[in-house]
Amino acid sequence: MAIERITVLGSGIMGHGIAQISAMAGYKVVMRDIEQQFLDKAMERIRWSLSKLVEKGRISGDEMNSILERIRVTVDIEEAVKDADLIIEAIPEDMRLKKETFEKIDSIAPSHTIFASNTSTLPITEMAGATKREDRFIGIHFFNPPQLMQLVEVIPGARTSKSTLDVAINYVKSLRKEPILCRKDVAGFIVNRIFIPLVHEAAWELKEGKAGMREIDAAFKFKLGFPMGIFELADYTGIDVVHKATKEMYARDRKVVNPCPIIEDLYSKGHYGQKSGRGFYEYKQGSYARVELSMQEAERYDPVRLLAVAVNNASWLISNDVAGKDDVEKALMLGMGLKEGIFGLAERTGYARIVDTLKGLRDSSRNDFYEPDALLLNLVKG
């Protein structure tokens, strides 16, 4: 099936980013939202983004105009979907809202149209069940911001056809992005299955007084090789996003995350991170500045607990055939900016120490979340 016309539902950060890169790849795009003001703001952001590419000499002024001409906006949902080959939903992470949206467009979109959700955590199979085209329904999870991030997780539901999967992967490749197949529709998919529990684990270290926030962040950055601290990354992502993802993942699989009340507390106070001016750190309203961390701070904290949880979840993904080891490693590098493979870090630390750390946490907390995965146990034996 040839994809020519794409409809993006939602014009927020993800929606307008997906619309932009799709138009840049030559597709005709319709972007739909519930109010014209949202669409106007989205088009302003797209123009700004493209103008930066012109300034850097990556595209010409004529190319910018051609890209903009390929994007049409509307508040009329019937108008938005009537000619679409592929519809990508990028609305808020609310299962009820997503199901209602898909149920509505299922009756008005052409029979050949493929439906895709940009959800970061919600189950694809459950969403697809709201439609009569479960074979033509798939998850295409872009990372923020879509214009810059190379990783795209592709998640088939239980009844997604092979042809739909092929179309989705080819579409992602046409954007010059890196598709990583998430073979099973599990809570958190690949990257968030590792990232969300890491935020909570760091928060537990903070709550238990094991180290200060800056020390944990510095060790995460300098000792584990991430581009920023875990708390800084949570603030950048959005505490509201982390909180909602946690709720959805925990509701479907209690072994996927050990929720720390610090996240709930920040969320309830409206401290969403960089976007609200305060999260774990404080920011000047409307601006984002990197947190300056030092190696001296890193030396005061051993991040073995964080590494152990990350490696354990990565091992679970491999053991349960959600993704192969190489794809898990690539997803973490592209999606979280990890400099080297997570298993390389674990090997240097020592698999025996990783497993002992997990067993200690399991026994002290009486929480099966920390149960070492069979793959890790075998690596110790090997």
Automatic annotation (TrEMBL):
Keyword Oxidoreductase appears in the UniProt entry: yes
GO BP terms: fatty acid metabolic process
MF terms in GO: 3-hydroxybutyryl-CoA dehydrogenase activity; NAD+ binding
Domain 3-hydroxyacyl-CoA dehydrogenase C-terminal stretches: 188-283, 305-381
EC number: 1.1.1.157
Domain 3-hydroxyacyl-CoA dehydrogenase NAD binding span(s) in chain numbering: 6-185
Pfam families linked: 3HCDH, 3HCDH_N
Keywords: Oxidoreductase
Lineage top rank: taxon: Archaea
InterPro entries the UniProt entry points to: 3-OHacyl-CoA_DH_NAD-bd, 3HC_DH_C, 6-PGluconate_DH-like_C_sf, 6PGD_dom2, NAD(P)-bd_dom_sf
Record's protein name: 3-hydroxybutyryl-CoA dehydrogenase
Taxonomic source organism: Candidatus Nitrosocaldus cavascurensis
